């Protein structure tokens, strides 16, 4: 078992958690010398990673750090590719739904060493199955990228900080709507193959969203 897998968790409130992670991001050094800090809030939709990422972004802005929010939901592949194996294929959900190439090209590449900082906040609308046509935006040096979404770890993204919002299998099944429970095998596979509790820099357990606990 790795040191990360052994880490004890302790109770925390959402405001204290937000402040602690914002402080860490505001003071973080990047791992590759990039002038931008790149962070991810990883979690199943039932864990609401986007909601907490919004709170974290606001805390960073109050610290004077420019922030750009990007959601994985804006970088899904077109339906013709996502649904090639049917509308409810958990392996396709795990392997094919996220357009990792587009995220590299439009987000992580421009925020790497020598990058321009000019990124695309979203690319594809999965509801209309059309390009969003959003304009490019520039994140100034010293800014923070906050990416949120499910199944983000283990993809080689150059993250300076990754936080995993963890639900136990029972809590995940309980909090996932009936029409989305076909995705549960994908998250079981993610736990087994990627081991996000070991991969992430910090883990927040959210089985009871009123009483989170984290590894610090």
From TrEMBL:
<protein>
    <recommendedName>
        <fullName>Uridine kinase</fullName>
    </recommendedName>
</protein>
<feature type="region of interest" description="Disordered">
    <location>
        <begin position="28"/>
        <end position="49"/>
    </location>
</feature>
<dbReference type="InterPro" id="IPR027417">
    <property type="entry name" value="P-loop_NTPase"/>
</dbReference>
<feature type="region of interest" description="Disordered">
    <location>
        <begin position="193"/>
        <end position="216"/>
    </location>
</feature>
